[in-house]
Design brief:
- It is built from 11 helices and no strands.
- It is mostly helical.
- Helix 5 runs antiparallel to helix 6 and helix 10 runs antiparallel to helix 11.
């Protein structure tokens, strides 16, 4: 922290890392329950101000950085369909880059005071591109080559649809609240927790085995890499097993997520 730095004053053209942290990483950002992924808490927020400073000096707008995030997300989806170990390693790297840009676009917006609905919209596009795209491309990877149809191609398409629907369930909470004239929902665990005792217990059990979290691009990329390593010994079978397991888990997650939304305080 820079002693005496006025966060409301005109921003310096060449900020220090301490100034960037003070302005772009306030406590309400670092403590968000859902918007901050564990990789951001673990290390990306420690790295992001250095890249944010470079992006600011290069003249990038917040939306420009979000477009870089979307490009990294799309590239991660494309290389997922490359059925080699190199392809799997590139997926992990590109997803980490996607998440780093995801940290930086908000930091650039907070530094430049340019937050906007367009930025939120583009951010959603980036995450949908990564998570749904990797899921669909996993079908190509399981097939071993690109083709128009096939069992595993269909499984990948189904997984992509289920991942999209699961994300839509989250976004529809905000849509429903807006149309009902309710204020924006706080990003806090107590709001997301089911009101019923039995459902609360189920939610705690789900946290012990958080299979519902594997559909984020970070976890998906790691699973793709692990399956690729096993495939070196089993000739591609690990990726097929992974895809089948993800389809089953996505079905369970979709149903459980719907019950959790309807039983929580998110619509009240």
């Amino acid at each position: 922290m820079t002693a005496g730095f006025n966060v409301g004053a005109e921003r310096p053209a060449r900020p220090t890392i301490a100034q960037l942290r003070e302005v772009t990483q306030p406590p309400n950002v670092r403590s968000r329950a859902a918007a901050e992924h564990w990789v951001a808490h673990a290390y990306l927020r420690d790295i992001s101000p250095y890249l944010t400073r470079i992006l600011l000096r290069a003249g990038f707008s917040a939306n420009g950085v979000t477009w870089l995030m979307i490009i990294a997300a799309a590239a991660a989806a494309v290389v997922t369909g490359w059925p080699t170990l190199v392809g799997a390693i590139l997926v992990v790297i590109l997803v980490q880059l996607q998440m780093l840009f995801d940290c930086c676009d908000g930091e650039v917006a907070r530094w430049r005071l340019t937050s906007s609905p367009v930025g939120v919209y583009l951010d959603r596009v980036g995450h949908y591109t990564a998570e749904c795209g990797i899921a669909v491309a996993l079908g190509v990877r399981a097939t071993g080559q690109f083709q128009i149809s096939g069992v595993w191609i269909s499984a990948g398409l189904l997984l992509g649809l289920l991942v999209a629907l699961n994300k839509v369930e989250n976004d529809l909470v905000h849509v429903a609240r807006h149309y009902a004239g309710l204020p924006q929902m706080p990003d806090a665990d107590e709001v997301r927790a089911p009101r019923g005792g039995l459902l609360r217990t189920g939610r705690r059990l789900a946290r012990l085995i958080p299979f519902h979290r594997v559909f984020h691009s970070v976890e998906l990329s790691i699973l793709v890499l692990l399956a690729a390593l096993v495939d070196l010994f089993v000739g591609g079978m690990a990726t097929k097993v992974l895809l089948a397991a993800l389809v089953v888990a996505a079905c369970l997650t979709l149903i459980g997520h719907l019950i959790a939304v309807l039983s929580s305080s998110r619509q009240r």
